[in-house]
Structures are given as C-alpha cells and as structure tokens.
Amino acid sequence: MEDLKPGQIVTELDRYIIGQNDAKKSVAIALRNRWRRRQLDKDLQEEIAPKNIILIGPTGVGKTEIARRLANLTDSPFYKVEASKFTEVGYVGRDVESMIRDIVELTVNNLRGRQQENVQGKAEQIAEERILDLLLPPTANTGASVSNDIDIVATDSLKKKADTQTGTREKLRKMLRSGKLDSRKIDLEVADKSSPMVEIFSNTGIEEMGINVKDMLGNFMPKNTKRRKVKIKDAMKLVTQEEAVHLVDMEEVKTKAVEMVEQSGIIFIDEIDKIAGKEKSHGPEISKEGVQRDLLPIVEGSSVPTKYGTVKTDHILFIASGAFHVSKPSDLIPELQGRFPIRVELTSLGADEFTKILTEPKNALVLQYIALLRTEGVNIEFTRDAVEKIASIAVDVNASTENIGARRLHTLMEKLLEDILFSAPDIKEKEIIIDAVFVEKQLMDIVQNEDLSRYIL
Fold it and tell me: For the domain 351-456, what is the CATH code?
C-alpha cells in the first residue's frame, strides 16, 4: 500500500474498467486513507473510521468489478454479498452477521492455502522418507549393550546390514525421484473422509451458534483410516498433502486472518436499493427496514462472534451498490445513510465505452475469444468496423430491451461466434476475418426482430 498512490490505483483500475473515473477516484482515496491511518499513533488509529461508499448506477457499468479489483490490488480480504438475501433476526434465513463469518472463513482458507504452499518443500521431503520406509522398512535395532566378544560380532553384523540397507535406500531414493517407481503400487493408510452427517435446525441457521458443532464432534470422534493400494506417484501427492496440513500453524493462521479482516477487509454489499424504503403493509412479513437496522451496527462497528474468535467491524470498508431505479439513497434509514458518507453515481455506458471494453482492458472480450480459438489452431481477427458495429448493436439492444450494460456484450459475442466456436475443431479455414459485414449477417436479423431479440440477445 505504501507504493500505491491514489493516481496509481486509478491507473491499475483503468487496465480492467473503462470510464467511471469519479468512482475510481473515490475508492482510490478510501484505500489510501487506510494506509494513512496505520501510520498514525495507536490511539488516533482507533478514532478514524473508514469512509464507506455507495456506488449508484445501473447494472453492468462496473460497480462490482471496481470493488473486486480494488481488493486484488492490495491483497485485502474481499467478500461480495447481496443485501436482498438477508432477513431480520428472528426469521428463518441468513442474518447480516453471517457476512462477517463468511469473510473470515474465506481469509482463513486463503492463508491456509498459502502456508501449505510455503511448506511444500519440507512436506515433500517428509513424504519421500515415509514412502521409502514403506518400500524398505528400517531394520529393528535391539539396542543390547556390548559386553562380550559375541555381542561385538553381532554389532558388526548389524552395522554391515545397516550400511547395506542405507545403500539400498539411496538407490530407491534415486529411482523414486527419477520416476522409475511411479507405476509400482504400495499399501498406504489414508484418512477416511466419510463422516456421519449431523444436522441441526434452528431459526437462524447453524452459523448463528457460538460453538461450531461439526468441529467439536470431529475432535471427539476417532480419526478413521483405511488401507488402500495406490501407485507411488499418487501416494507421494497424498502423503505430501497430509504432511503440508500438519506443518501449518493453524493458530497463527486464525490470528492473522482475524487481524487482516479487521484492518483491511472489504465487504461489497450489492443490491442495497432492494432493502430501501418502508412498507405500508402490516403483519408478519420480513421488513426491509428491519434488515437495515440489523445492518446498521455491523457497518457502525461492533463485535461479531465467529468460530475463529471475535471480529471487530469498526475498520472494515463497506462498499454498497444499487441501481436505485425505484427507490433512492435517501429512502434508506437516516442512521444507515450516515454510515455511507461517500456517494458516487456511475454513468451508463455508450457505444464509445463498449468499443473500448471490447478491445482495451487486459481481459478484453475480443482478446479472450481470440485466445480461446487459438487453442484449436484457428486465428480470428476483428476489424475496427466490426468492433464498432458490435458496440452499436449492444447500445440498440439495451435501449429496446432491458439495459444490462456491458453484460450485453457477452451475449452478442457468444451469438456472433456461435458457428465458429462449434465447428472450430474441424474447420479447414484457419484464418478468419470478422468484419462489419460478418457482424450484420450474424446479428441484424435478430436485432431487427424485437420480440426475438428479447429472448436471444
């Protein structure tokens, strides 16, 4: 983060997202402020809360992508959730605290995976010794004291036998490393992963329980193993994986994961407009305002119990987004509005933006399809007028049907190249030019038939 200045953050986001400069600028400042906060005294650090953001704009303009790329830039814990999936406390369904448990779970899994990669070399060494022990069991040493000539002769004999075994072991080691033993089968004790199913029913789901019942029962139950005949190549992988798990310090992983979530976690709450507004109806229905009130303490800063420890949400950055077609940000309860002080409106995308999206980003759609077909030995080339035609059609279809933004390009590209993608393995013409004429031939009949385009495009 020290090297990532706000301007550089925007430049990095530009590699993947076209336009939306105001939104990029806002998130870049929010991200840099996190680094600035950590440079302050401990007492002042606790006083500075993150400036949460609401991204306002129609679907398919880059709201989610901005948040996801932002998290990737700094390797921050990131979790995306739809606000509409939550229910009030007391109703069956997921409560808002579950998103904190989920982001911690994801972070623990990521850190565990990285730790296992770090100890992979050591795990492979241990696995190699275990496999060699199975191929050539070590000679039992009686450990008798040397007290007379007979014992000395016996000791010499054991020493010669041990030297011979050491030589044989080294020969086996060389054969093992060179792959000459890969197809040989050995008996291996492996963990039996099948475990009894335990289901617990409660009105707020199992994640609400303070104690993780599954883990608790797993610790009491004996670890079942079963003997299998496996090839040495597969046995090496199994044993290496098992040893890597044992070498990871899970207490360190859990502590670091909680700290990362608390200090640099980013939670993206999509469709927040779906819980805005007040219902006029009375009765037992789940209240949108009730979900907002449950969300408020999490965003304000509270302590959430998880199976890895208590997580404080005071410094987690929350980025909310919504189209706000029916409702507006001011329809959220005032307390929640106050916790999202930064509001950025994202603009709808036009033909120019679509043209850039197709060709300029690092993961541009045109580049993706060129790479996919190259695996079949087929080289396709898009002319400039073809790209502009696709962008123009996307704008027209968005205008005549539902406006789904840049996601329309995925549908058009798939329909445009459908025949080529289908026949690519057997196609004789390996060099194909996609021009405006080709685009019109493939798409214009569907575009002009409005009823048909609603179903296909």
Answer: 1.10.8.60
